[in-house]
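BUG: 3D viewer hangs when loading the predicted structure for this chain

Environment: internal workstation, default settings.
Expected: structure renders.
Actual: progress bar stalls at 90%.

Input used:
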Amino acid sequence: MDNKRVTRRARIALALAGGTALTAVVAQIPANATAGQVAPHRAASAAQHASRSVSTSYDDTYYKDAEGKTGKALKDALHRIISSTQTGKLTYDQVWDALKETDQDPDNSAHVILLYTGRSQSKDAHGGNPDDWNREHVWAKSHGDFGTDTGPGTDIHHLRPEDVSVNSIRGNKDFDNGGSKVDEAPGSLSDDDSFEPRDAVKGDVARMILYMAVRYDGGDGFPDLEPNDNVDNGTQPHIGRLSVLKKWSEQDPPDTFEKHRNQVIFDKYQHNRNPFIDHPEWVGEIW
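Structure tokens produced before the viewer hung:
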């Protein structure tokens, strides 16, 4: 057998045994990168390499029961995987400390990157003041009225640090294109019934929403969350627009920051993964 193939297989086996996929992902962040470079811009070749590494590491283990499936069968298989492996569940207070690690600025360990603004801000500057950061529910908790009890209200796959005033502007609006400029979040737009995030995180938003739709299907006393193609969904357990979210996921593929975040959640907190970060092509296979 080719010695190179043996060596490669051995490295993969060691990665699976020791959880070194995180190291592979972190290594894609340039040592001299600034927070602004990491958050808003796409490191395409590094992200593609990291994606292949994660897929290789987890397809034969974590995702083995989903391989080869499409449509509802794929969605059901992913639900079983990500719900059964979510052995770590946080309280709402614990989310503060978790976000300080999942969203840490790779260029400044004392800061986090805010989702919509892209701003690097001190981890300690969180609270209720206008320029503090707080916990943004990307799937607005009023869409299904699930609150902040342990469950969808504390699932850090869709909870992100965000400027208090920008979080208020987004409120519980659905996602769609268009609107007026949001001064504190350059590149973001908002109107009466929808919010459009900056280009660099459009795909992140889409994949968080679709994760929630797969993870929470009406079991365990939680609402059945599902995206639709509407806006102004109110308290119904829906968020739109699905057609726009699908385009955003295509236009903004997973980058190094998003992959690293997924790995930290898997390794240290919930122990489940967002499958659409590992396999963004599954978005089109399901919806």
